[in-house]
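Lab notebook page, bench 4
Experiment: in silico fold of construct C2
Operator: M.H.
Input chain length: 359 residues
Purpose: comparison with the prior construct
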Amino acid sequence: MEGTLPTTMQSKFAQDVTRMLRVLHIGVANRGRWPLDRCKPEIGFRSAMLCDVNASALAEASAITGLSSHVCYTDIDQALDAASKGAADCVIACVPTKFHVPLAMRAIDLGLPVMIEKGMAPDWTSAQRLADHVARHPNSRAAVAQNYRYNPVERGLVRAFNDASHAGYIGRPHFLEYTQLRVRPSPGTLTYPFASIWDMSCHHFDNLLAWLGPISAITAQSWRADYSPYEHDPNTTAHIEFASGTRVHYVHTHDAARNVLTIEAHSVLGAIRTCPEGLTYNARPLEQFGGRPETILPRENAEGEADLLRDFYAYVVHGIEPGVSVRNNLEVMAACEMMVRSITLGRRVVRDELAGVAS
């Protein structure tokens, strides 16, 4: 995975619309709103069917898309059955994490390309079951909506680590700090053990794997604030070792009092870090306690979920497997499992302890 760029960065191929994909949207409230807004004809998608157990959310989505009640469903099995009989060409599902695996497997069985929201699964066993199911259906197309990797900052870091022509190029980092502090006083659906890892750290691990390649070991801890509304620890920290030699210090919390995202990487060539404008770069000083001026880097041309959909389109129509495919995302789930095991066992956990082959 290291040293490669996302499909939408390699060429414009994923943007060439050769056929329109009619979408069955399953789950249209909250996080399920983004596909309704982003599935546009110019990138090859058209909303064709809606499904949600919440009737009011379904009615609102119907008003947004202009779709009639004849293509609106409250029963997922009925919606999938109608889609498989010609009413839709693919499925985009934004439902709670615990439903991702059975829903994706059902779509695959019906021959429907499917993209489920992140995280791919709520546990390692379920993630393996889905990846194995995909492997047994070699013509299937199943992906995970890991949209963070398609944002400008994350795309700029791909360039910084892999593209020698980039103004902020530093090559392979020796050390990287990744901190996301979130103000999230309502647990919502994050009520199961290690939910913050399976549901949110999956984004961070997807980025790290795309930037730095395979993870070899994780040493982690978790905790909760005394005022936390979460039943299970929503805060984690970890020391992550990569096969390439890079070390990462990782911190993630839902009990914060201010939203903070800090990513900073250092190498033999220099340093790159997040700033209000995006990213800055400075060359590595050679004198004791020295410094160098920081340069604000040009903002990457990235469109978030729209680029995610472009890669999903290329996967369905042209067979170009993206980094967010279920097969590739299994390593993200492996990182989550290593984190969970390290916290539970109170020790360093290496990748080789997990069943399954590292990608």
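Observations: Confidence is low (pLDDT under 50) at residues 1-5, 9-14. The CA atoms of residues 160 and 169 lie 4 Å apart.
Next step: discuss at group meeting.
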